[in-house]
Write a structure and sequence with these properties.
By secondary structure, this protein is mostly beta strands. It has 3 helices and 20 strands. The chain folds into 2 domains: 146 residues, Sandwich (Jelly Rolls), CATH 2.60.120; 110 residues, Cyclophilin-like (Cyclophilin), CATH 2.40.100. The strands form 4 sheets. It has a 7-stranded mixed β-barrel with strand order 12-19-16-17-14-13-20. It has a 6-stranded antiparallel beta sheet with strand order 7-6-9-4-1-11, with no helix packed on it. It has a 5-stranded antiparallel beta sheet with strand order 2-3-10-5-8, with helices on one face. One of its GO terms (molecular function) is hydrolase activity.
Amino acid sequence: MIDVLAPGPYATIQDLGRPGYAHLGVPRSGAADERALTLANRLVGNPEGHAGIELTFGGARLRFADPAWIAVTGAPCPLYLAGRVAEMYAPVWVPAGAELVVGAPAAGLRTYLAVRGGVEVEAVLGSRSHDSLSGLGPPPLRPGDRLPVGVAGDRPITVDAVPGPAFPAAPVLGVLPGPREDWFTEEALRAFYGTPYEITPESNRVGVRLRGAALHRAREGEIPSEGMVTGAVQVPPDGRPIVFLPDHPPTGGYPVIGVLTSRALAVIAQLRPGDQVRFRPGGPGAR
């Protein structure tokens, strides 16, 4: 068991989501930064899809009732295990009864904790992920929660440590053409790919709302609702783009000017309010 003493500003259980239910109106959900969660799982010898804890702005305190191997990845935070400094991006042995304290990240937004065996809360539609849009899955963590840990598999722990990714101050993200790119003027396309945008405080796991040049349409009217994917850049009538994250609705009625690459998705999921971002056409991702 893991006892939640303090969850921080916002903490949820996430795995790789529940794909295949969009036709029923169920979002995929899952870790906002899949790259970080899968790496944490690999570090402790788990399958990549095991459930872990996603922390937003750190701030958690957890007590481990039983000894465990853990790994912490994502936004870099100071870690203290039983009062001593612990390392991120490495397997860490936690003795029974030890308390882990996760500080606030120096950069980035979301930090991931994997435990060998995975967090085994009850699955809903094949996933243990919390979906902030529909409410499916386990609720956000609260003080006093007890999280069961699964049985470790046969995979050995083979890595001592890995380097963490860079967190650039103003990343440039790769975007593939969207299905409704022709709905926008040439001036709008030049603005989208040529000017910076700022992450707004209204951003969450549903989508990243951007402040910057308004993107004007080349035609009037609206489109019927159509399927949406994670990474879609939807543009409502006010012209301010929204980048969909894992808890996005399965359908949307605003035109999509582009879709972020999977590599770029991991980067934008780590941007915090006030950060700036630029976009460029094509893959593979970000710089």
